[in-house]
Structures are given as C-alpha cells and as structure tokens.
Here is the input.
Amino acid sequence: MLSASEPNPMDALIRKLGSIATFSAEERQAIERLPVNVRMLHPRQDIVRDGSKPSQCCLLLSGWACRYKLLRDGRRQILSFHIPGDIPDLQSLQIPTMDHSVATLTEAKVAFISHESLRGLTECFPGIGEVLTRCVLLDAATFREWMVGMGRRDAFEAIAHLLCELYLKLQAVGLAENYRFSLPFTQTDLGDALGLSYVHVNRVLQEMRGKSLITLRCHILEITGWDELLRIAEFDATYLHLEQRAAG
Amino acid sequence: MLSASEPNPMDALIRKLGSIATFSAEERQAIERLPVNVRMLHPRQDIVRDGSKPSQCCLLLSGWACRYKLLRDGRRQILSFHIPGDIPDLQSLQIPTMDHSVATLTEAKVAFISHESLRGLTECFPGIGEVLTRCVLLDAATFREWMVGMGRRDAFEAIAHLLCELYLKLQAVGLAENYRFSLPFTQTDLGDALGLSYVHVNRVLQEMRGKSLITLRCHILEITGWDELLRIAEFDATYLHLEQRAAG
DNA sequence: CGGCATGTTGAATCTAATCAATCCACGTGG
DNA sequence: CCACGTGGATTGATTAGATTCAACATGCCG
Here is the structure.
C-alpha cells in the first residue's frame, strides 16, 4: 500500500472523479493500478494533434492544458482549459480521429494511458465507464456555456463568467480556495478562448480591477467581488454538475 | 414484420445511427421494438425545460428542433439544430439535470422514450450503448466547431460553415440531395445560433445571393457554389465523423 | 546589458448591433 | 373581393463594441 506521504500519480484523477461522482474503494484501487507512462512536458507543447488517431489518452497531473483549433491564417480558438485530473482527449476512446488539438499551456506533468488498458478498466468496472462518460458529457456542458458567452454575452460578462467557472473547477479538486488561484497563462490565451482580442481582454481586466472585482498580479487572480461577479456573469453553476457533498 | 409501405417510427433513428456506425439486424430489431410515445408538437413549443430532471428522452421523427439557453434579459443562444433521428436530450440519461432547454422550431413529430427502457436496451445490447455514447460525443464535436465559428470566423464564414454542416447532416440521413434542402426557420433563429443579429444575417445572406453562392426562396435553400462555400468556410467534415460507406 | 515575451495604453478603424421604417406574403374576416 | 393584421424579410442611418495598429513599459533570462 502506498504511504500517505508518497502520493500516487492517479490522485489527481481520483480527486477529479470524486468531484462529479462517488465510487467504491475497489474501483479506486483499480484506477490507482492503471499502467501509466508519466512525462514532464514544456509549456506550449502539443500533446495530441488535430487529425491524428491516438492509441492512448492523456491525463493531466499538474499544470494547465487546453484544446484548440486553428484556421489556416493562424486564427486560434481555444475550446477548453484543463486542470489536473482532466483527460482532455478522453473522447478519442469512442471517436478515433481527433477533430482538434490538445496542448500544454504551462509546464505540465502528463500520464499517458493506453486505450487498451482504459477499455479493460471500464469492462471490469462499468461504474468507472459511466463516470468517464460523465466526464466527456460535462465537457460538452462547458462547451455549451462558452457558446452562450461568445454568442450572447458581452466581453465583460463573458470574462466574468469564465473566471467564476475556473475558480469553481479548481476549487472542486482542491486547487483553489478563498477566491484566489493561479492563472498562469497569457491574456492572448484568454482572448483566444473567448473570441476576443488580447487588447480588449486587457482593457476589460483593467475595468474589473477598477471596479475592485478582481486583483491580478504575477498571474495570481483574486476575486474580490465574488457575489457581484456572479451577478454580472449571470453565473449558474448547474452546468458544472458538481457532486453535492456534506463536507470536503 | 412491418411492410415497407408502413414505416416504423424508429426508421429515422435507424437511419441516423446508420450514418455514424454499423450495427446488426438483431440490434436493429431491438431498437424497432422500443416502447415509444409519439406526439405531434406545434412550432416553437418547449419539449424539455432548462433546470428540469427528465425521466425520458425525446427522439425527433419529423421537423426541426433546437437546444437553447436564455439569459435573463431575453438574449437567446441556440446551441444546436436537430433533425429527424436526433435525440437532443440524450445526455439526460447520464446527467439528470438539464442545463439548457429543447424546443421545436417547426411542427414536429416526437417519440418519447423512457430512460428506463433506454437503459434496458443498452444493457442487453452494449453495442447500442456505444453508438448512443457516440451520438452525444458527435454533438460535442459540433459544439466545438460552432465555437470556432462564433469566436474566430467572421459572419460570412460562420454562416457559410453552418449551411455546409446542415446540408451534410441532412444528406447523411437522406433528407437532402443535389445541394438543396428545406430551411424552415427564421433568420432570427440563424442569428441566435451564430451569435449575430437577424439584420446582419439577412445582409450576409443577400451577399451570398449576390455572389451566386446560394439561392433561398420560400425557405428552400440551394447551395449553388458548394466548392466556393466550402473554401470560404474552411469546411473540413472530419468533425462530423460520418461513417464512410460504399453506397447508399 | 540586450533581447524577448507580456502587459498596458492611445488612436483610428471596422464589423456588426441597434434603431427605425418599409415591404411583402399570407391568412382571416367582413 | 378587399381591408386588415401579422410575422418575417429587407433596407437605411446611426451607434457601440471590439479590432487593429502602434508605441511604450515592465520583467525575466541568458
């Protein structure tokens, strides 16, 4: 048995899955025993390329990653941000060809898990298969919310909404508290996620600071006006479908 | 056995599933025998409401439907369009609470199928479960493509892309050919799907007509410049993940 | 120290939204 | 048959939100 002081690399995944479903000690052990291939990756390194047919999935253990698509002239749309515990290309298990790319945003530790062993796991433990299906459906719920942001919210509302979302997602896996978290990527990345130019993102962030809604220094964001930000963003956490639990 | 002249209501579903996967005669029969509750619905009628916890799924048999979210002040974002064979709220099987609404756009025939019987079906036929999972993942792929449209394509490109997508989806289930199809909803709906105002949608459609890329009369769209439209939209059908087949 | 990436700010420009009419097809009722 | 009402499409004028271009500041790293 692993000692508490030497955390299993799968802890990030366990924590993530625990935030959206409950599962047994047996299932937990099976996850911990999955054969993985752990690697450190540089910032802004592609993990999976658009058009490829991966034979493994990537589980993010530390750092940030994103999914994105490029247009020919270089315009980029970031489709999602990913934090430890996420498996950004989980859908490749069911849909062989990637229709987008996955890349790191920061230095990141990634565990590669073969499709084969993931299939073995879900066959032995259908409950885990259901939780993983839940994961990809929750990604889709976030896509839907981002669509509302890009299509029908103005820049201020959209950024406010994204900041609330990121905080709650980080908090759910124990990576944020007290309305503070690390936002270690650039305003260009934020713009590419929201369909805005980096200049405009910058101005809106200034405006939020001016209204004392946030502070942002050295890539540490603090939401100082949480309730107000929720109100402006019309934020409703239903779409995150987080497991309600009594405590911690 | 059903005669050819009296089509089973599930034919729409069979055709849709056949466009994205292959399955056996046995599986096909099981689908045809699903107990359903068929109803005709008026145009612009809600089928499932945001926030509800449905105990059944709705299979669209004829007509058009959409998923959408509303902001408090009435701004609407359409998240997807649905055509016969689609099950817009399929994810409610795994995620109990709806984070958006589903509504008809036209008069529509809808088959309601209880979660219970769907679960029974996927337990007996795991292959069907996989195809259904594939369905919701394909929806997510379309969400991603729409995000690119809203965030990084201009209005002309985005509309061009949507028209190409709708044609191919209709064609895949035999509801369109020769670059012609019925587009029986309003320009306001198109705008709400693309994050544009209806006035602007109108102008762009004019421009497309001016360039002889499309004709649009009485809600019948003909794409007269398919290749050019594909080029402008930078359309790549990979994200539709349609099953490649020799013929028919 | 110099170079580079990121963040900040201003000015000009542009895309698309908004506001406001008007038009047209269609259905209804007198 | 025609007046009327309605929903959708179209067009023009104006405005707003966001982009683009450009410059400069800051901070980090070799």
